Every structure is written in C-alpha cells, then in structure tokens.
Amino acid sequence: AQSVTQPDIHITVSEGASLELRCNYSYGATPYLFWYVQSPGQGLQLLLKYFSGDTLVQGIKGFEAEFKRSQSSFNLRKPSVHWSDAAEYFCAVGPLSGNTPLVFGKGTRLSVIA
Amino acid sequence: EPEVTQTPSHQVTQMGQEVILRCVPISNHLYFYWYRQILGQKVEFLVSFYNNEISEKSEIFDDQFSVERPDGSNFTLKIRSTKLEDSAMYFCASSEEASNQPQHFGDGTRLSIL
C-alpha cells in the first residue's frame, strides 16, 4: 500500500532563510506527487504537483520541489521564507486513475520567526 | 479561479443527531471526494464518487455515512447518527476526468459533536 512520510512534525525558520520540507513515499510505481498547504482555519491549497518529465517542479508562492526516484523523495523548497508562509504543509501521493484517493503525510507545521 | 465551496464552515451537533455537510464542486469536475482531518492528525480519505455512484470508500466510511449528489451542483455527506469521534474537519474535493488532474479542495467544515 502506498504511504507518505513527512519526518519533521514542526520546523521553525527565520524570515528570509531557506526552507526544505522533507517527504518520502512508498509506492508500487512512479506516483503522482503533490504538496498542499493549509493555513490556520483554511482548506488545502495546491502548491505544486509532479506527474512526469522534469523532476524539478515549480509551484505557486515561490515554492519548488524535486522528485528523486532513487531516494523516493519529493522535498519542498523555498529559497527565502516569508512570515506569511507559516502554515501546515502536506505531501500527498496519487492518484493514478481519476478517482483514486490521495494519501497524505501527517504534515509539517512551519513556524516563521523574525 | 473556480473553487470548491463548502457549507457550513462550522457545524455543532448533539451526539446521535444526523448531520449533512454540503459541497459545491467545481462545475466541470466529474470526480468528487470527501476527506476528514481529526484535530492534530493527517487528512484521511473517506469516499470518492463518480458517475452518480461511490467509486471507492475507506474503512472509516461505514454504514453511518452516505453521500449523494441530489442535483447538478451539490455533493453532500450525511452522517446518520453522529458520535463524539466524528468531530473533525471534513474536506470536499473535486477533480476533472483526466487522471493527471489534481484534486481541488474546499475550505472544509468543522464538525463538533457534543
């Protein structure tokens, strides 16, 4: 069964510092990979997705993620964090068919300090 | 940009009562989903719906749960007799028919069972 691991429960970074959130997945084939962000009291907003092709994908709000098949990883990065980036970040895998459910990691909570 | 809308944003219900959570998916989307997120835990899949029937459901989606698309726009989740452990954030999502299209999420309904 597919699974997603986000090893960091909570990360604190200084505003302006770089950020990397880790995500590892377990899947039988090359998955579709996603990062969603959840601000407090809000829903899940899609940051970026990987389906195929270039392993470095660009998303909204200056985020990018790199798919590394050899490491089964899809880490999220941002070169310079803004205070408004404080939120919960979820990595997800799937679906390969139109109605296969997404499998989410437990999330990483990002705090940004001045 | 079109979005998934959910109502109400917060629902407080007595244990044992029925509750209906409502969702309006994006208009040209054909796949619909419900997920839930218990406070502090990860987002979990409940059910997917396509072509007016359930496509897939998780272990969580027992006989107390049902889904319906009563008209051309709404997609509802009904919990027949709520339990304390049903307290959670419930997210509706929808996606286009093509398999490489991401799921778009609503802002969620916070369900509190007293």
How does the SSE layout of this entry go?
The complex is a heterodimer of chains A (114) and B (114).
Chain A: E1 3-5, E2 10-14, E3 19-21, E4 24-26, E5 33-38, E6 44-50, E7 56-58, E8 64-68, E9 73-78, E10 87-93, E11 103-104, E12 108-113
Chain B: E1 5-7, E2 10-13, E3 19-24, E4 31-37, E5 43-50, E6 53-57, E7 65-68, E8 75-79, E9 88-95, E10 104-105, E11 109-113
Parallel strand pairs in B: 2-11
Antiparallel strand pairs in B: 1-3, 3-8, 4-5, 4-9, 5-6, 7-8, 9-10, 9-11
Question: What would your notes on this structure say?
Answer:
The complex is a heterodimer of chains A (114) and B (114). Chain A has 114 residues and is mainly β. Chain A is 0% helix and 49% strand. In chain A, strands 2, 5, 6, 10, 11 and 12 form a six-stranded mixed β-sheet that branches. In chain A, 38% of the residues are buried. Chain B is built from no helices and eleven strands. Chain B has strands at 5-7, 10-13, 19-24, 31-37, 43-50, 53-57, 65-68, 75-79, 88-95, 104-105, 109-113. In chain B, strands 2, 4, 5, 6, 9, 10 and 11 form a seven-stranded mixed β-sheet that branches. The A-B interface holds A 32, 34, 36, 42-46, 49, 51, 90, 92, 95-107 and B 4, 6, 30-31, 33, 35, 41-45, 48-50, 55-56, 58, 91, 93, 95-108.
Q: Strand-residue fraction of chain B?
A: over 45%
Q: Can you give the helix content of chain B as a percent range?
A: under 10%
Strand content of chain A: over 45%
Q: Which residues of chain A form runs of ≥5 with pLDDT under 50?
A: none
For the termini of chain A, the CA-CA separation is 41 Å
Helical content of chain A, roughly?
under 10%
Structural class of chain A: mainly beta
Principal-axes geometry of chain B comes out as globular
Shape of chain A: globular
- Strand and helix order of chain A: EEEEEEEEEEEE
> What gap, in angstroms, lies between the N and C termini of chain B?
37 Å
Largest sheet composition of chain B: 7 strands, mixed
Mean pLDDT metric of chain B = 91
N-to-C SSE string of chain B, H for helix and E for strand: EEEEEEEEEEE
Mean pLDDT of chain A: 90
Low-confidence stretches of chain B: none
Work out the radius of gyration of chain B.
13 Å
